[in-house]
Amino acid sequence: MSYAAHRLHAGERIWPEANCYVDLWIELLHDRGLEPLAATAFALTADFEGDQWTFFKPPLADLGVLYGVEIEELNVWRSLVDHLAVQLARGRNVIVEVDSYFLPDTAGTTYHEAHGKTALAVREIDVAAQTLAYFHGAGLHRLSGADFPGAFRLADPALPPYVELVKWRRAPLTGAARADAAWALMRAHTRRIPDDNPVAALQARFAADVTWLHGEPPASFHAYAFAMLRPLGAAAELAALGLQWLAGEGAPPSGVDGAAVATAATELLGLAAAAKTLQFKLARAVNGKRALDGAALQPLVDGWARAIAALRSTLG
Length: 316
Fold this sequence. Notes:
Layout (H helix, E strand, L loop, with lengths): L6 H4 L9 H12 L28 H8 L1 E5 L6 H10 L3 E7 L17 E10 L4 E6 L2 E6 L2 H5 L11 E6 L6 H16 L7 H17 L3 H10 L1 H20 L9 H30 L10 H17 L2
Antiparallel strand pairs: 1-6, 2-3, 2-6, 3-4, 4-5
Helix pairs in contact: 7-10, 7-11, 9-10, 10-11
């Protein structure tokens, strides 16, 4: 199965993966020859939700504007694999929530080890041979054998999963029209950025979170990092790379200060790197039962403030 992942997954990234939904859309678009970096403005709006960082997703409206795609919920009233075969034959893709226990690409984490909800995008299915080619994480993968009925709950269909139908309705935007639309989305999402610094909100509770983790099993650290630090860093990096891609598409629109945009991208990349460093520090503190207070987040707090101030000065 020959497939080259998009450079967002193939290159040297700070956070090689964002989350299951963002990652599958990167590859779904790339598989059709479309540029996913045009649709990354939404990552700017990621916020601290009190008990987690935003599980950020590309808005369906943005995908429709840029790529002419429509996404609807699929009513699973027959066997799920029958629905998949019908829709793929019509040139559509299907996004399915499955148990990562049955996904071979999660080997070393959850594959045949632990159960967990995740989303994949189906590219090819052979119901008779019970094989599936799917986008998940950083690329295209294949499953077969006992993983096929397991992933699709064929032995226990009582509660069907949530399924989205991806319909490629209209021609995607290209060239200057695509760049103009991407800048418009960047401006719109800049206006949706939280008023208060969300990293400061996380900072205020961080020391207490570390103390709590000292009494928890190792799995709790991984869940905490996935819910807090990975989305914080990954969203910042994705937004930065989107800004850099836009800058490379030509001169910014009238009234947009390219220097301010470049500053914001640099600061966001610094924030992404600082979040990765903090994750390592947290792992050592939890493993050694050592304190780690909110001061460890100050570089992230300041980086977010500088990045967003630069963006708001020219796009807000």
